[in-house]
């Protein structure tokens, strides 16, 4: 009988009904400290088990509604209903089937369990319920603040990825009606000089000239990447081409200075800029 019901719950492929029968000795491990608790268990696939649980909950609610109607007790909005509304965004839709709960009835949607009004676990004072609701509100506020923080971090990561790849990732969080921001791809022009690439000359002056040449050679490569970037407007493309030409000219001037110094010291001149930029027309 429904008045003997202690709990209805399901977990994965298991559906169980716990009833209180004082004539029998409990053989269940889930006794909650009570004697005479009997557990009836059935097994099936998860979807079927969940459907049976939902129907059992609805049938139990029908029994409670009839009992309440006979006693002419007006149906009032309980504190448990208010607590469930506070977490409505995170609770399954199944829990809405049991929004009109009887006295002190509580639905545990996390594991599909019903603790009915007759069990000892449901005997909670009104003061404790108010404290629990206040605690839930505080947790909700903290979770919302943390969520906003994580969303901002995700936006920054997505924007950085878009700058590197030229395409906005689908994970970028958007509000209702919001359009994704337009981001231009950044051209990688950063470079790092390896200490092993720097020339080792005995002459300090020639050493400085050679090091200066290597640095400006990297600058020329960076200017070339900027000038060859696609989808540039006419003025920007013209400006970058001019900067690239100026960089190449500066590189040639540094090599001329190196060759003049090498001839002065009795050494052979070099043609580094021509070898470093094959196929390029040097002004």
UniProtKB/TrEMBL annotation:
PANTHER family: FERM DOMAIN-CONTAINING PROTEIN 4, FERM DOMAIN-CONTAINING PROTEIN 4B. Its main location: cytoplasm. Residues 126-153, 237-264 form a coiled coil. SUPFAM superfamilies: PH domain-like (SSF50729). Keywords: Coiled coil, Cytoplasm. GO terms for cellular component: adherens junction; bicellular tight junction; cytoplasm. It comes from Callaeas wilsoni. InterPro entries: CUPID, FERM_domain, FERM_PH-like_C, FRMD4A/B, PH-like_dom_sf. The keyword Coiled coil applies. It holds the Pfam family FERM_C. It is found in: Cytoplasm. PROSITE patterns: FERM_3 (PS50057). It comes from the Eukaryota. Signal peptide: none annotated. GO terms for biological process: establishment of epithelial cell polarity. Residues 1-67 form the FERM domain. This is FRM4B protein. The keyword Endoplasmic reticulum does not apply.
């Amino acid at each position: 009988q429904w008045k003997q019901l202690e709990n209805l719950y399901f977990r994965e492929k298991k559906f169980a009904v716990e009833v209180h029968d004082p004539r029998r000795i409990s053989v269940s491990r889930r006794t909650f400290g009570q004697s005479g608790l009997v557990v009836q268990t059935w097994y099936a696939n998860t979807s079927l088990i969940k459907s049976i649980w939902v129907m059992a909950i609805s049938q139990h609610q029908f029994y409670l509604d009839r009992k309440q109607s006979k006693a002419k007790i007006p149906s009032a909005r309980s504190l448990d209903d208010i607590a469930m509304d506070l977490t409505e965004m995170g609770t399954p839709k199944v829990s809405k089937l049991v929004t009109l709960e009887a006295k002190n009835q509580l639905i545990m949607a996390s594991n599909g369990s019903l603790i009915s009004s007759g069990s000892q676990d449901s005997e909670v004072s009104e003061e404790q319920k108010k404290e629990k609701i206040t605690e839930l509100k505080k947790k909700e506020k903290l979770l919302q603040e943390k969520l906003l923080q994580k969303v901002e971090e995700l936006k920054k990561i997505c924007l950085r990825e878009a700058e590197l790849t030229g395409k906005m990732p689908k994970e970028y969080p958007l509000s209702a009606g919001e359009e994704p921001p337009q981001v231009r791809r950044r051209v990688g022009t950063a470079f790092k000089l390896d200490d092993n690439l720097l020339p080792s000359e005995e002459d300090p002056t020639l050493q400085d000239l050679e090091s200066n040449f290597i640095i400006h050679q990297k600058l020329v490569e960076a200017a070339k990447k900027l000038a060859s970037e696609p989808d540039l407007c006419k003025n920007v493309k013209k400006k970058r081409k001019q900067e690239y030409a100026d960089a190449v000219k500066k590189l040639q001037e540094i090599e001329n200075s190196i060759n003049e110094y090498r001839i002065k010291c009795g050494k052979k001149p070099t043609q580094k800029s021509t070898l470093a930029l094959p196929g390029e027309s040097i002004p």
